[in-house]
Amino acid sequence: MSESLYAYSEASRRCASMQPNLLMESSATSGWTSLLLDRHEGSGHSDAFETHPTDDLTLVVATAGRHELQALAGGRWRTALYQPGNAGMTPPGETTRLRWSTPSERHAFGTLHLYLPGSLLAQIADEYRRSGQSADIDQLSVLTFRDEIVTAHAHALLDAHRSGEPDLYAAGAARWLTTHLLSRQAQWRNVADDTRRPATLSDRRLARVIELMSCHLDRALTLDELAREAGISVHHFGRRFREHVGMGPAAYLTTLRIDRACLLLRTTDLAVSEIAFRCGYPRASGFSTAFLRHRGCTPSAFRAGR
């Protein structure tokens, strides 16, 4: 096994044993020490399980199929839809209670689990701090985000593992991925700057608002709650959101809900009333009215014509 300046934790090897889905292959057999790459497959549904603690940054990338992932936080289950292009992260030392499900046993999904050395994460963050910047490492706890570049690099690492590339390849990829994830998710900033700009909606703040919407389609969300997530005043939030997205927050949330409903209508046999509830409509009649307005047909007709 080659020596690496930054090596993944031995605890990361045990993380696969805590996963209810199947471990199909692992870079642990390739001699890589700069990162660990595990490929998993699953179908059906899992009971709730606790992830194994590790000193590494855990990155999970969806590669095939679709599945619904739920994470327990603050006494409530948060829900996210995983499909190719989506990923999630857990910072070093943090564990999460999870469960997942697919539309049926016939619908399998695939994920790549990358464990990036915690020592590498600390070193890169320290490099930024020495140049007068800081990063909020807590922001690396993300249930889901979308990043096609991360997905492409995860696939490239899997191909490299299969083709027998040396640990030098993994070391370069680990450094790039860690830097990229920190720069996109940890809000690098100059410590001399005042980040409390009440009228500014940055791309990162917008992403957090959209993530909040996507994870809580089943409940009512207020403008005040969305504005707090964005870190700006309610007075400015609606206008800034429209400038970035092209529609108001309420309209965008409805679009997300109808898109989720279409997916559930196509891929599950859930009752329309249950789909309505999962998508934030306590009454099926209200759901049917909104669906008809956006799709030009009723939910039942949409399902019949799928």
- Count the strands? 12
Share of helix among residues? 40-55%
Overall 3D form: globular
Oligomeric state: single chain
Low-confidence stretches: 190-198
Q: Strands of the biggest beta sheet: in what spatial order?
A: 1-2-9-4-7-11
Figure out the total of helices.
Answer: 11
First CA to last CA: what distance? 52 Å
Cα radius of gyration in angstroms: 21 Å
Structural class: alpha+beta
Mean pLDDT: 86
Helix and strand pattern: HEEEEEEEEEHEEHHEHHHHHHH
Largest sheet: 6 strands, antiparallel
Strand content: 15-25%
List keywords for this structure.
six-stranded antiparallel beta sheet, 11 helices, alpha+beta, single chain, four-stranded antiparallel beta sheet, 306 residues
Written account of the structure:
The chain is of the alpha+beta class and 306 residues long. The chain contains 11 helices and 12 strands. The protein has helices at 10-13, 118-130, 148-162, 167-185, 203-215, 223-230, 234-245, 249-267, 272-278, 284-295, 299-304, and strands at 22-26, 36-42, 49-50, 57-64, 67-73, 76-82, 86-90, 97-101, 109-116, 133-134, 142-146, 189-190. The strands form 3 sheets. It has a 6-stranded antiparallel β-sheet. Strands 3-8-5-6 form a 4-stranded antiparallel β-sheet, with no helix packed on it. Strand 5 (67-73) and strand 6 (76-82) form a beta hairpin. Helix 2 (118-130) packs across helix 4, helix 3 (148-162) runs antiparallel to helix 4 (167-185) and helix 5 crosses helix 6 (223-230). The radius of gyration is 21 Å and the shape is globular. Residues 190-198 have low confidence and may be disordered.
